[in-house]
Amino acid sequence: MVQDTRTAILDEAEALFAEKGYDATSLRMITSNAGANLAAVNYYYGSKEALLEAVYERRIGRINNERLSQLNKLEAQANGKPVPVEKLVEVFVKPALRIIREDDTGGKNFIRLLGRSYLEPSNVLQDKVRLQYEEVTQRFKPAFAKALPELSAEELYWRLHFMVGVLAYCMTGTDMMRMIASSNIAHSDDTDLLVARLVKFVTHGLYADEADIDTREMTKQAI
Question: Which CATH superfamily is 52-207 part of?
Answer without folding.
Answer: Tetracycline Repressor, domain 2 (1.10.357.10)
